[in-house]
Write a structure and sequence with these properties.
The complex is a heterodimer of chains A (415) and B (210). Chain A is an all-alpha fold. In chain A, α1 packs antiparallel against α2, α8 runs antiparallel to α9 and α12 runs antiparallel to α13. Chain A is globular, with a radius of gyration of 25 Å. The two termini of chain A are 20 Å apart. Chain B has 210 residues and is α+β, with helices and mostly antiparallel strands. Chain B has a single domain, classed as Mog1/PsbP, alpha/beta/alpha sandwich (Protein Transport Mog1p, Chain A). Helix content of chain B is 28%, strand content 31%. Chain B contains four helices and eleven strands, in the order ααβββββαβββββαβ. In chain B, the strands form two sheets. In chain B, strands 3, 4, 5, 6, 7, 8, 9 and 10 form an eight-stranded antiparallel beta sheet that branches. In chain B, strands 1-2-11 form a three-stranded antiparallel beta sheet. In chain B, a hairpin with a 2-residue loop joins β4 and β5. Chain B is elongated, with a radius of gyration of 31 Å. The chains are: A mainly alpha (415), B alpha+beta (210). At the A-B interface, α1, α3, α4 and α5 of A face α2, β6 and α4 of B.
Chain lengths: 415, 210
């Protein structure tokens, strides 16, 4: 008996075109005035930042390089985690990187200017002793949060359809905050902690190990949630409610930053870092000021993810049981860890190519949900093509592995 | 001519739904200009509201506030600006430290001789630099006090042992007509110096040297 030839894996080019799949837009929107505002300010910021970084590098070359190495060790995983938070519709990379660059170069450069100017206002309004105690709390939380937040607003204006849920706002906000914190930390490591190896390591402990979870990523994430709520809930809430909720989130971000900079709840060791007890005290001090806001953001992100689950289920309701999606596949699709487990199992049984193909199937099925929400007819060519593509990938997997789909319940009986 | 709606109503048929309203065109320019305006206001608004568009270019004028009672430091008499108090006074060599919060003015009559520039660099090398972990110093420049007394001035920014935030300040050195060397060092945490610089300069400008 002749062995049936397994079908070939559909090449990537065979993926149906997604005209605007969930409406993916790049940063490069030359017809949008907001794009030019974004680009011009970013370019100026980059120029200034290069000069500043060059001066740091000249001042303490070893400390500057060490600062960057340590901060990349922190920033790369945070970038990946934040980017992967969006379960189904990852944001276009150009916009995400644009947000990161805005935070790193535009917002930091403008903040240097803004903080100096508004410090003068604070100094003119309060007695000097009071002003020096409170100036950091009365300037940076407002100037820096607004300047970072304007990056999120500009990204929204450049690609309005990309921010369609609060998770998107959090992702862009967190990226802006991440860029900002990296550049600010280099400044602190070199200037405030002395710039030598010991100083940089001490700075890394204080600003990243002890406080990395509570800083600008958190504040700007809250700002981003506020912006996203305002622009994405037009059909569900009145303008007044949207404005109120957005203001609440943005104020929460500003207040978190204000509390961090203020002398309130200040439990830092008064004599600096002398022994192990001082280091532990720093961790305690940062936890008291930052943890409540971190928990709040975690709650918001969890709710947003739950909403995304519901959205996926609704979007795929009409496809369930069809050629594009089987019921047992939906269970796996909804759970990122189940998706990873299924790919590992497929790799074990069918090898790396099979696991990669399963990944493509899962991605194609999420795309199917996006296409289903975009088109208005059940037999729309895009939808039909996407279903056929999913079926082709599944058939290849079954033939290649000669077994049921990895991760599917044993009783599915589909193979 | 009858409209389709009125014709349908006339024949007793249900009125067809009205056509959907045209899609609202979202303005592209207005929000971008608004965002730019917010960015500009936040970035430079502080300077405009504080009435100090540029931090540079201020001269030693000595015309701010009502000074307190004179405090002597050797042959030098300094009148603290309002809000400034004596933090430390040492007789030998004559030294005085005034403060207002985290802003400081240190006055010393060093046991050294030489020109103002030499005094200035001697102070930086022997007093400032040894305490600093990082120090960036400007070139010195000649200045003239309102009394006509020539002096030498430089600015610095740096991080110092035991001080949490970077400091910036100015050092002014002069040699009086009687040959008395005096060094004034005023500083404050980075970003705050610009707010107290005038007060410090006023105290220096109004100091009397025997």
């Amino acid at each position: 008996m002749a062995t049936p030839t397994p079908p070939t894996v559909p090449p990537p080019e065979a993926v149906p075109r997604r005209p605007h799949w969930g409406y993916q837009t790049s940063l490069w929107q030359i017809r949008q005035p907001a794009f030019w505002v974004f680009i011009v300010i970013l370019a100026i910021g980059i120029l200034f930042s290069v000069v500043i970084q060059a001066s740091f590098a000249g001042l303490t070359p070893g400390g500057w390089v060490l600062s960057w190495v340590l901060l990349l060790i922190y920033a790369v995983p945070v970038f990946i985690v934040v980017y992967a938070l969006d379960l189904y519709e990852r944001e276009p990379l150009s916009l995400v990187i644009g947000a990161l660059l805005w935070g790193a170069f535009a917002a930091t450069t403008l903040s240097i200017l803004a903080n100096q100017g508004w410090s003068l206002v604070v100094l003119s309004l309060f007695p000097f002793q009071t002003a020096t105690q409170w100036v950091a709390a009365l300037t940076a939380p407002f100037t820096e949060e607004i300047l970072k937040g304007m990056g999120i607003v500009l990204i929204y204006l450049i690609a309005r359809r990309e921010i369609d849920d609060i998770m998107d706002g959090f992702v862009y906000g967190a990226m802006v905050g991440l860029g900002f914190t990296v550049i600010e930390d280099v400044f602190y490591f070199v200037n405030q902690f002395g710039g030598d190896v010991g100083g940089v390591l001490q700075g890394f402990f204080v600003r990243v190990v002890a406080s990395g979870a509570y800083g600008h990523v958190l504040y700007s994430g809250l700002f981003g949630i506020g912006v996203a709520y305002f622009v994405s809930r037009r059909r569900e809430a009145s303008a007044a409610k949207r404005l109120g909720v957005a203001t609440l989130f943005i104020t929460a971000g500003v207040f978190a930053h204000f509390l961090w900079n203020s002398p309130l709840l200040n439990f830092y060791p008064p004599e600096g870092l002398q022994d192990l007890g001082d280091y532990l005290q720093v961790v305690l001090a940062t936890t008291i000021k930052g943890l409540p806001f971190l928990l709040f953001v975690v709650l918001m992100v969890s709710l947003a993810r739950r909403r995304e689950h519901r959205w996926l289920r609704t979007a795929l309701a009409g496809e369930l049981g069809g050629e594009g999606l089987h019921p047992d596949e939906l269970q796996i699709l909804e759970d990122p860890s189940a998706r990873r487990r299924s790919r590992r199992e497929m790799a074990r049984r069918g090898g790396a190519v099979a696991a990669q193909t399963l990944r493509r199937l899962q991605k194609a099925q999420i795309d199917l949900a996006m296409v289903a929400t975009r088109v208005h007819h059940d037999d729309h060519p895009d939808l039909v093509r996407q279903r056929q593509y999913c079926r082709a990938l599944r058939e290849w997997l079954i033939a290649y592995g000669g077994a049921r789909m990895a991760g599917a319940p044993p009783s599915s009986g589909r193979e | 001519m009858q409209s389709p709606d009125s014709a349908a109503a006339h024949r007793g048929l249900p009125v067809p739904p009205p056509p959907p309203p045209p899609a609202r065109r979202e303005s592209r320019w207005l929000p971008a200009i608004g965002a730019l305006a917010v960015i500009l206001f936040v970035s430079v608004g502080g300077f405009l509201l504080a009435g100090e568009p540029t931090a540079a270019g201020q001269e030693l004028t000595g015309d701010r506030g009502t000074p307190g009672a004179p405090v002597s430091v050797g042959p030098v008499s300094v009148r603290p600006a309002p809000g400034w108090t004596v933090a430390e006074q040492i007789p030998d060599p004559p030294q005085l430290r005034l403060n207002a919060g985290s802003a400081q003015l240190y006055v010393v009559v060093p046991p050294a001789q030489g020109r103002a520039e030499e005094l200035l660099h001697g102070y930086v090398d022997q007093a400032l630099a040894p305490q600093a972990r990082q120090l960036s110093v400007s070139a010195d420049r000649p200045v003239e006090l309102p009394s006509g007394q020539p002096a030498s001035l430089l600015s610095y920014v740096g991080s110092f042992e035991g001080v949490a935030s970077p400091l910036e300040g100015e050092v002014l050195a002069l040699v009086s007509p009687a040959g008395t060397p005096v060094v004034f060092d005023g500083w404050a945490p980075e970003g705050l110096w610009v707010g107290v610089r005038e007060e410090v300069r006023t105290m220096i400008a109004t100091a009397e040297i025997a």
